[in-house]
Amino acid sequence: MSSTRKFKKVEKPLSQTRHYSLCIPTTLVSDCRNLSQITHKVYQVAKFASLFNVSEVVILEDNSQVDATKKKISTAKLILALLQYFVTPPYLRNTVFNEKFRPYLTAASKLPRLSTLPFTRYQKQDHGRYREGLTIKMQKPTLARKKTGKVFKQTKYINIGKSKALALQSQLVPINARVTIDTITRKIVSPQEAYGDFTGLDSQYGYYTRIASSFTDLFMKGPLKEGYTQSVYVPLTTRDTSIPELSSLPTAETNPHILLVFSTWDTLARAFKLDQDQFVDCQGPQEFFDAQLPCPVSNSDVADAIPMTLTTLSTVF
After folding, report:
1. How far apart are CA 220 and CA 213, in angstroms?
2. Which InterPro entries does the UniProt record give (predicted)?
3. CB–CB of 232/241 below 8 Å?
């Protein structure tokens, strides 16, 4: 009898119906006094984003809060690094984050892992068959490649947090790419095949992160080729606007992607004013939103508003 153990693939149900992107301002951490408080505030955002299968988190820079003193890292980049850290497998963190960012991640390393992400918990049903990995450079490129003098940009080796890198069976992939690996067949697979739910963008499991340095970047520089299906403003303060209240969402069958912008109106107005010359005949930021969804309980804290809003969307609509 062969000693090779056969692994039975477990089919995982799909439950994702609507995709959500969250836009949070850098004022998220304006009331924090130190790195520990900032880390805990961002951790709450990461926790709820992963819990509700959020696909993207956008950090909107509030230029009115730029500190005149010299900083090694901006507030937006700090929030971005922390958000990425929480959805990176522990065994890849030292590879993904260079020494420049590590001093800012000390408090984050002491927090619990996000249990909703499959690569941060042990998959008993398939014995850890699927793992996240980071492609690494081959140690010795082929002789033919050396003779051509071309830059070696592809590899078959994947860092999956083991003592030895995993060599792909018959694939070459770009260097420094995040991938999902079937450790039995030694092939790259989609997160959908590995984990069931396809969350994130561009074959990532978890959420995609980016910084919007301006109002234009928020809507024009997203990862979606066709843009967002619907944009919804979630006010953090009471303010009368001409934006109609949300009454319905696109049907799940259309695979919609909805942008939720959590912000005070003043923050959006300032950002729009800086880019106003790019929007001919636009009267204000209200023209970029299809609807608004006030929180069930008036709240000016983004970290508190996110779970209330996502719960409302998942139960009422």
Report:
1. 11
2. Alpha/beta_knot_MTases, Put_MeTrfase-C9orf114-like, tRNA_m1G_MTases_N
3. no
Cβ-proximal residues to 147 (8 Å cutoff; 6+ apart), any chain: none
State the Rg of the chain over Cα: 22
| pLDDT for residue 7 | 47
- The full set of domains in the chain, from first to last, is 19-117+206-316 (3.40.1280.10), 122-195 (2.40.50)
Cα gap 309→304, rounded to integer Å: 9
Q: Which amino acid is at 219?
A: F
User: Hey, is 57 helix, strand or coil?
Assistant: strand
Tell me the sheet residues that pair with 122.
Answer: none
pLDDT along the chain (317 residues), means of 10: 49 63 95 95 95 92 63 90 92 86 94 82 58 80 54 83 87 87 90 67 70 94 88 89 89 84 93 88 91 84 94 86
Residues forming beta bridges with residue 287, ordered by sequence position: none
Distance between CA atoms of residues 78 and 84, nearest Å: 10
Tally of CB atoms within 10 A around 82: 26
The 8-class DSSP code of residue 312 comes to: H
Between 75-86 and 35-51, two packed helices, what is the crossing angle to 10 degrees?
50
In this structure, which amino acid lies at residue 118?
P
> Cα separation of 26 and 74, whole Å?
10
